[in-house]
Write a structure and sequence with these properties.
This protein has nine helices and two strands, in the order αααααααββαα. Strand 1 and strand 2 form a beta hairpin. The longest helix is centred in the last third of the chain and has 33 residues.
Amino acid sequence: MPATSHNEAQTALLKAVSWLCRPLLRLLIEKGIGYPQLRDLLKKLYVEVAEESFALNGKPPSDSRLFILTGVHRKDIKRLRTGEPDTAAVRASTLGGAIISHWLGLPAYQDAAGRPRCLPRGPVDDGTPGFDALVADVSKDVRPRAILDELLRQGVVSLNEAGDICLNRSAFIPGADFEEKTFFLGRNVHDHMATCAHNMLSPDTPMLERSVYFAALTEASAQELRELAEQNAVAALQAINERALALQAADQGKTDAIHRIRFGCYWYQAQRKHTKDTGQ
């Protein structure tokens, strides 16, 4: 089999990355995190990972070497390494988040008790600003109706009997359950991705990373397989957990007890988008 060229390898990898990013981007968009925030985060992470993983002779890479490795502009690299704020960057909050921030923080949009008041679309008779003015305070580049439709879809606002727009505060305050899920999202998917990266970069010492895939199943068949998978997954997790507890107790105090492990299982089920679709 002929060796894969550098360009072919990059093309194949980028195709895989575009596939794996789609559910992540859907989650980010749903939670109001737009491209500017992700762009700035990726820029920072590119520099951090290059610093951590691509030192030469034990010395941290120079700004020029980081530029070569990552493609991040030297001025951005210098700013990120020195911790200087990015004055040119788009503010951390999205447009919707900024609107909510104004709604909560500006007296013009609060009632006598300091709570965010329900807003009509336009100003009231005494000139008190309404929702359209709130949006214009943040950005004049987007129609207030488009913002309203999205906030209604997300459940961040609702309409009262008079048709005024009311802020549902509980809808945008993450609960403990959401915070816990995001914690494990980062840890679990990080370790799964780290396994995949290790197996791509060190094929002679692969780590366990397996799955089974079937299509053209009825919903009843899929449900039967789901129950079977859950039964076997719970049994496997319990066995690993029981043995790990015993080994951890035995390793207590040993100088080489510096390794960590994570063993997980997952299940995904969805309808195929097309009859010939075998990748969903």
